[in-house]
Amino acid sequence: MNSSFDPASERPKRRPSWIRVRAPDAASYRWLKGLMRSKELHTVCEEAHCPNIGECWGNRTATFLILGDTCTRNCRFCDVKTGRPGPVDSQEAERVAQAVRTMDLHHAVITSVDRDDLSDGGASVFAAVVRRIRKLQPGCTVEVLIPDFRGDVEPLRTVMETHPDILNHNVETVPSLFPTIQPQCRYPWSLDVLRNAKEIWPQAVTKSGIMVGLGETVDEVLDVMRDLRGVDVDILTIGQYLQPSREHAPIVRYYQPQEFQMLAERAHQMGFRWVESSPLVRSSYNAEAQARALIRDA
C-alpha cells in the first residue's frame, strides 16, 4: 500500500477491469422513469449519472432529488447542472410522497441540489417531504442527504426536528482538495453539520461519504475517517470517483479492490457501525439494508 501516492504521476488511460456497470432492466427502468416523469420529479440517479442506476432501478428503488434540478454551486466532480434555480414548488413534497407510496418503498432516500439562493437552503422543503412520506407511507424509514447549509445550524434544526431515520451529509473529498474540487464548500461546515445533527437529536443515525481517486493520499482519507468518527458518524461510504465528462475533474488514479477492503477494515476498527467501501459505492448504495440493520432491527 502506497499511502504517499503522487497526484502528479501519469493519469490512468483506461477504466480497469473491476469497474463494471450493470445495464438497467428494461421493464423496471421504463416503469420507474415513467413514474418520475408523470409526477414531474427528479432523481439524482439520472441527474448525476449514477453508475448503479441499473441495479437500483432494476430493484425499483431511486434517490429523489428535490428543489429542482439546477444547483447554485459548481463542484468539479458533479454532473448536476449549475445555474439559477427556479422557484420552490409547493406541491413537490406531495408528489414525492405519492411516488414513494406507488413504489411501496420501505426506505426512501431524499436529497437535493444546493439552494444557496434560499434563506434556509431548502430545509423547510426537506421537512415537508419527510412529514408527507410518513403520512402517506407509514412505516417507511426516511433518509435525508442534505447540503451543508453554509454551516448555519437553524436550517439543520428544521430538518432534524422531523427526526429523519438517517441524516446523511457527504464530505466528498479531503480538506486539501476542497478549494479545487468543491470551492464553494468548506470542510468545517460539513463536520459541523454532522456534529450538530447529533447535538440537536442525540438518537440520530448519521452518515457520510467520500470519493477517492481525485489526487488525495490514503493518509488523507484515513484522517477524514478519523474526523468523521470524531463527530460520531455511524455509517461511512467510500467509492471510486468516475469523471462525468472532460470538463470535470480528471481521475488521478483508480484504487484497487484490496485498497477499498483495507479502508473498510480500518473504518470498522475506528468504530463505524456500517461501512460500504468498493469501487461503485455511492451514497445511497445499499441504503435500505443499512436502515433495516441499524434502525428497524435495533
Report what the structure shows:
The chain is built from 11 helices and 8 strands. Helix content is 38%, strand content 13%. It is globular. It has a single domain (26-296), classed as Alpha-Beta Barrel (TIM Barrel). Helix 6 links the parallel strand 4 and strand 5 (166-168). An 8-stranded mixed β-sheet has the order 1-2-3-4-5-6-7-8, sandwiched between helices. The chain is of the alpha/beta class and 298 residues long.
Number of strands: 8
What best-fitting shape do the alpha-carbon axes yield?
globular
Number of helices: 11
Detail the poorly predicted runs.
Answer: 1-9
Under CATH, the topology is which? TIM Barrel
The description of the largest β-sheet is: 8 strands, mixed
Strand order, biggest sheet? 1-2-3-4-5-6-7-8
CATH superfamily: Aldolase class I
CATH class: Alpha Beta
- What portion of residues belong to β-strands? 5-15%
How many domains, in number, for the residues?
A: 1
Structural class: alpha/beta
Helical percent range? 25-40%
CATH architecture: Alpha-Beta Barrel
Rg, nearest Å: 18 Å
The helix-strand sequence is HEHHEHEHEHEHHEHEHEH
Mean pLDDT reading: 87
What is the first-to-last residue Cα distance?
37 Å
